[in-house]
């Protein structure tokens, strides 16, 4: 088995390499990369690894960007510092994930799970890649080459499940004014000024929300049309947006997105 380790923390990368050698003595760590750019270059210039151990937060962005830039068919085990609640969305159809600091037993269990999956798909060579592709579509941001949803899947979400204590309930999108990030977590802001945490990244949400109703103003905020209170010209062709309910931070639309935003508003 050949393994690529994608990890920007040197100490964690060394530990992963040591654990791989202890848990899977016959495995070969074929490469170790620290960024999105380096990982893409490595995958384009080397034979496909049998497995990728991949951190989510890298030096130059989230590792999901790798899948936007090129097709990745190797099974992936994500390594993350997120707590379990924040990464529940990644568990659907995933190969596995490991929480930092990675433990030997966790890695051994993940490799055993991969082995069982390969055995299950032994008579269907494309089966494992199909399962992985399903995961990657859920994790990666939307791209022009992404396959459209199947007829059995709704095109866009109309509600989100949120948690309050031990209670779960749905928040209709008609109640949502905007969605924003704080400390790498995503939150719904409703028109009555409630905030609810949801287990989706902003890139995922960009593919789940109706673009006629929602616009991604910048990396931090996705707003519903009725939440746009004021739009003012800003320097260098940028736009400054005021939201309602009021958003605590300044919301700036870049010069590159300003034209698209103005068209979306009805120009």
UniProtKB/TrEMBL annotation:
Alphabetical list of InterPro entries matching this protein: CheY-like_superfamily (IPR011006), LytR-like (IPR046947), LytTR_DNA-bd_dom (IPR007492), Sig_transdc_resp-reg_receiver (IPR001789)
Q: Which Gene3D superfamilies match?
A: 3.40.50.2300, LytTr DNA-binding domain
Specify one Pfam family.
Answer: Response_reg
- Locate the HTH LytTR-type domain: which residues? 160-267
Which residues does the UniProt record annotate as the domain Response regulatory? 2-115
**Coiled-coil annotated spans:** none
GO molecular-function terms, A-Z = DNA binding; phosphorelay response regulator activity
Q: Tell me which residues bear 4-aspartylphosphate.
A: 55
Q: DNA-binding: is it a keyword of this entry?
A: yes
Transmembrane regions: none
Entry protein name: DNA-binding response regulator
């Amino acid at each position: 088995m050949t393994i690529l380790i994608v990890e920007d923390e040197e100490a964690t990368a060394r530990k992963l390499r040591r654990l791989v050698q202890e848990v899977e003595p016959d495995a070969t760590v074929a490469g170790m990369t620290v960024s999105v750019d380096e990982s893409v270059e490595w995958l384009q210039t080397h034979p496909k690894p049998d497995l990728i151990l991949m951190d989510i937060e890298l030096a130059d962005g989230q590792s999901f960007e790798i899948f936007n830039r090129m097709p990745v068919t190797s099974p992936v085990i994500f390594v993350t510092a997120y707590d379990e609640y924040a990464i529940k969305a990644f568990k659907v159809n995933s190969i596995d994930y490991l929480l930092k600091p990675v433990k030997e037993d966790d890695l051994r269990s993940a490799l055993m799970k991969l082995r069982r999956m390969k055995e299950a798909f032994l008579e269907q060579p494309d089966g494992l890649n199909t399962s992985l592709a399903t995961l990657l579509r859920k994790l990666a941001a939307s791209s022009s080459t992404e396959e459209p949803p199947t007829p059995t899947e709704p095109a866009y979400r109309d509600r989100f499940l949120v948690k309050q204590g031990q209670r779960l309930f749905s928040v209709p999108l008609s109640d949502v004014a905007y969605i924003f990030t704080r400390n790498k977590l995503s939150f719904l802001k409703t028109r009555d000024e409630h905030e609810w945490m949801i287990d989706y990244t902003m890139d995922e949400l960009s593919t789940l929300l109706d673009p006629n109703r929602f616009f991604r103003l910048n990396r931090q905020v996705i707003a519903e049309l009725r939440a746009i209170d004021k739009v003012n010209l800003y320097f260098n062709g940028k736009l400054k947006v005021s939201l309602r309910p009021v958003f605590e931070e300044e919301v700036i639309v870049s010069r590159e997105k300003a034209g698209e935003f103005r068209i979306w508003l009805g120009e």
